[in-house]
Design a protein that fits this description.
Length: about 375
């Protein structure tokens, strides 16, 4: 791995640091982990617009769509610096990282020019309609149907665990359009306006009391035919593109855990705890594991930089996601074991951490990818 930064990348870093120092307020830093009340949501929406106006909302996007066309090293620097500065993630983080690349690759010019600028500013909030009650990590088992009716599709079915579904304006929706085809080949992707008649959204309350997820019901929803993203019955290919972009953001995994570990050490000192040998050993083990995770993530990024196998890069990223979830859960357990409920944010993280080995691909799915694509084991 070679992560020496050329002068132009260091200039990019310094420009970003200067801008963050001038624009990132304490209120925004606090808001990044606050419950998504209407007031916090409005504050984050304004922050997204500020980022977009300054050209920092989508650095990896091509310039023709409002991005900076950032190189891989510049993207790495951007992720590290914004995470360490404790900047909030975009409201449209799923849209920016997952959906936008699919629209850029498969969308029509009308879809690109109409949807992407509003997504970047968070003027439209996006969600993904993937998981269903009987189709979670096994996306190909989905049952939501879309039937051709003249120039339109008629959609019926249910999605669940839809991030920001109750606040979203648009959904990248995966539906079954050919029930007779093999399950991976009969899926299509639609871009659906969630304000259409027949759509019902119900927020889901998680263990920590947040409502970041929703279930979405579709009852005879008439979707225009030009909402199709990519070819008919090629939704699996679109989904693969989407997920590969999601896993490409591996740098945030280790940077985020480094920030959480620093915050935990600071809180231990503030509460006058954590100095016993057992706690220090657990802290040290977590610190070493985060460093290992950094090396693993950089190996995946290095493969992209130096023309390595895409399969190896994807396998390394899948393994990194698994390791990240396990470290996050152990960090949350340590914080709660030592601080207990007296530190509310760590009690909240203890509850939230249970999802780390599920969201974005379960540990079981990711380890299967690693076994098959990296180790070459049979399915």
């Amino acid at each position: 791995m070679d992560f020496s930064y050329p002068a132009d990348v260091e200039q990019f870093r310094n420009e970003l640091r200067t801008w963050l120092s001038a624009n990132l307020t304490d209120e925004l830093i606090t808001a990044r982990r606050s419950p998504r009340s209407d007031a916090v949501f409005d504050m984050l929406h304004a922050w997204n617009a500020t980022l977009a106006d300054a050209g920092w909302a989508a650095v990896s996007w091509p310039r023709e769509y409002g991005g900076r066309g950032a190189t891989v090293l510049e993207q790495l620097v951007y992720t590290e610096e914004t995470t360490r500065a404790r900047a909030p993630l975009p409201l449209n983080v799923i849209g920016m990282n997952n959906i936008a690349p699919a629209i850029m690759q498969y969308g029509t010019e009308a879809q690109k020019t109409t949807l992407l600028p509003r997504m970047m500013r968070a003027d439209d909030i996006w969600c993904q309609g993937m998981s269903e009650p009987d189709a979670g990590s096994d996306l190909a088992a989905l049952r939501t149907r879309a039937v051709r009716d003249g120039d339109n599709f008629v959609v019926n079915g249910q999605k669940i665990w839809t991030s920001l579904g109750h606040r979203a304006d648009w959904c990248q929706l995966y539906v079954r359009t050919d029930p007779e085809a093999p399950k991976h080949q009969g899926i299509s992707c639609l871009i659906v306006d969630l304000r259409l008649p027949g759509i019902e959204v119900r927020p889901l309350v998680t263990l920590n009391g947040d409502t970041d997820f929703a279930e979405v019901f579709f009852h005879d929803v008439v979707v225009p035919g030009d909402a199709l993203l990519g070819p008919l019955n090629a939704g699996w290919q679109v989904a693969t593109t989407t997920l590969s972009h999601e896993r490409a953001g591996a740098a945030r995994l280790y940077a985020e855990l480094q920030v959480r570990l620093e915050e935990l050490v600071t809180d231990f000192a503030a509460f006058g705890v954590g100095g016993d040998p057992v706690t220090l050993r657990r802290l040290g083990e977590i610190a070493v594991r985060i460093k290992y995770l950094e090396v693993l993530c950089q190996r995946s990024i290095s493969a992209t930089l130096h023309g390595g196998s895409e399969i190896t890069a994807l396998g390394s990223a899948s393994l990194a996601k698994t390791v990240w979830g396990e470290i996050g859960q152990d960090l949350a357990a340590l914080a709660f074991d030592v601080l207990g409920p007296q530190a509310s944010r760590w009690a909240d993280y203890r509850l939230t951490s249970r999802s780390l080995t599920i969201a974005g691909g379960t540990t079981q799915i990711n380890t299967n990818i690693t076994a098959h694509r990296v180790l070459g084991l049979p399915r």
